[in-house]
Design goal:
Distance between the termini: 79 Å
Helix content: 40-55%
Largest sheet: 6 strands, mixed
Radius of gyration: 31 Å
CATH architecture of the largest domain: 3-Layer(aba) Sandwich
CATH superfamily of the largest domain: von Willebrand factor, type A domain
Number of helices: 20
Strand content: 15-25%
């Protein structure tokens, strides 16, 4: 049996393949309109809502009057903007829309048609006003963290109502008062060049190498592979539009396609290649090249070591969770690899990959629901982080440690860090959630970001007004410089105190 006969035999149920399973049943059992047109209109509604737009007016499921009334409610509640990028919400809107369209038929003849449509429109509006209360902020955060496309509607609603999600919302709100965290995450990693160039010093020599003047010669090659500029007639199959390829699956359309191909009348993409050739310009002006400092590398993969020991309870715990949210947002939004290593006492390490949208969100939400307690063992997470950055898949990765600094590190681990710095270019960035740099923090980290106002992020309102009792994080370096080890003094940035 050929494809054309198979398609005819399966019609209109062959259109189910383009629909998610969640809408199969409500679309098939609805009593409005014709089944094939209803399946077609369901697909158009889902595609439009997922793009954040209203579907065409002719997608009315066979009941234009009732669908128009519900369309007005959907537009007034701004449901398309909420459903943008969230297929689960788009599917739920279509399911409830079909249910209310069916319900309008059930209300007749007890009510007139106009009364039935008005009632279902009111019920639809009341139901979605309750569903969307506070949903916009949650969906915006969900898109930042994972996109939300992998969730079903029941999973989505359950997750947004969970205690872990509420903790994640509070952590995201706390990030608005910690802009230095997002800036720090953009700096670490060594995969992309920074757009900022340090200006040259005035004391630099004025003699710089001369660069010969050049001019750009642009050559355009119509028909060559390149940017699509329009549609034209052609006989080459590789440029053919998909709509022309559909003719090949039709018994009569095959003949039409062969005739068009022979005559060079197939609709095809018009492409054009642009070649830019730089050539010496004898009329140009010779100028000196500016000797800018090397640019910093940023936006690469990173390993996040998060201290979850008992000494981090309270305000430091809240900041650590905010950093985890920022790391997940960076991993998802910037397509960066991120490995989370949450560590406590000996043998207490939780390792998760935040680069995957679904598992990364679940891992961070698990962390949101945990209380920080236990001891501190930084040896194992640092050794595991070194194993990660040595992998070729993590080339250019940096290490970020968030802690109050209450830890120590063995010399063998410190030596391994030094080897990774020399061989792999590893940079170890610390985030200090405490009042002073400890010896362990100084020996491990190359740079330390001090969150001086960490007490402001406590759980009680009284802690929000507590100021830091110290003027500098580098108390040991200031008052007891001889107490610093050779490694701590070498890596400590005295200018950042």
């Amino acid at each position: 049996m050929n494809d054309a006969r198979t398609t005819a035999f399966d019609a209109p149920y062959d259109r189910l393949r383009a629909l998610p399973r969640a809408v199969w049943l409500p679309t098939l059992v609805a009593a409005i309109g014709e089944r094939g047109a209803r399946l077609h209109d369901t697909r158009r509604w889902l595609e439009a809502l997922s793009d954040g737009a209203m579907p065409p007016t002719d997608a009315d499921f066979g009941d234009a009057q009732a669908t128009a009334a519900l369309r007005a409610v959907i537009g007034a509640l701004a449901l398309p903007s909420l459903a943008r990028g969230t297929p689960a919400l788009a599917e739920q809107i279509v399911r409830t829309l079909l249910w209310h369209l069916d319900h309008a038929l059930d209300l007749q003849p007890r009510l007139t048609r106009a009364q039935a449509i008005a009632q279902v429109a009111q019920e639809f509006e009341s139901a979605w006003q309750l569903e969307t209360q506070g949903l916009e902020a949650d969906l915006a955060l969900l898109r930042d963290l994972s996109g939300g496309a992998h969730l079903r509607w029941d999973e989505l609603r359950g997750r947004l109502r969970s205690r872990e999600w509420q903790a994640a919302r509070r952590a995201a709100e706390r990030l608005e008062t910690l802009p230095q965290i997002d800036a720090l995450l953009r700096r670490i990693g060594r995969r992309e060049w920074s757009t900022q160039v340090r200006p040259a010093r005035a004391t630099e020599p004025s003699t710089r190498p001369q660069r010969a003047p050049m001019r750009a010669l642009t050559t355009r090659l119509p028909g060559a592979p390149g940017e699509i500029s329009g549609v034209r007639f052609d006989s080459r199959i590789e440029h053919m539009l998909p709509s022309e390829a559909l003719l090949l699956r039709h018994p009569v359309g095959q003949r039409l396609w062969r005739a068009r191909q022979a005559e060079g009348r197939l609709l095809a993409h018009a492409t054009e290649a642009v070649v830019v050739d730089w050539r010496p310009d004898p009329l140009g002006r010779t100028h000196e090249t500016a000797s800018a400092a090397p640019q910093a590398l940023q936006r690469g993969p990173f390993v996040l070591c998060l201290d979850t020991s008992g000494s981090m309870a309270g305000a430091p715990e809240n900041i650590a969770k905010a950093v985890a949210i920022a790391a997940l947002r960076a991993a998802h939004g910037q397509r960066r690899a991120c490995r989370l290593l949450a560590f406590g006492g000996p043998g207490e390490i939780i390792e998760r990959d935040l680069g995957d949208a679904s598992s990364g969100l679940a891992s961070v939400l698990d962390l949101m629901g945990q209380a920080f307690d236990g001891g501190t063992d930084v040896q194992a997470p640092i050794e595991r982080a070194l194993e990660c950055v040595a992998d070729t898949a993590w080339t250019g990765a940096d290490l970020l440690i968030v802690s109050d600094g209450e830890f120590g590190c063995r010399r063998a681990t410190l030596d391994a860090l030094d080897r990774a710095r020399g061989e792999l270019g590893l940079h170890v960035q610390g985030v200090l959630v405490g009042d002073r740099e400890t010896m362990g923090m100084l020996e491990v980290c190359d740079d330390i970001l001090w969150l001086r106002d960490w007490r402001h992020h406590g759980n009680d309102e009284s802690s929000a007004h507590n100021a830091s009792p110290v003027h500098s994080k580098s108390l040991t370096a200031l008052y007891f410089p001889n107490a610093l080890s050779e490694r701590a003094a070498r890596h400590h940035n005295k200018g950042s105190a």
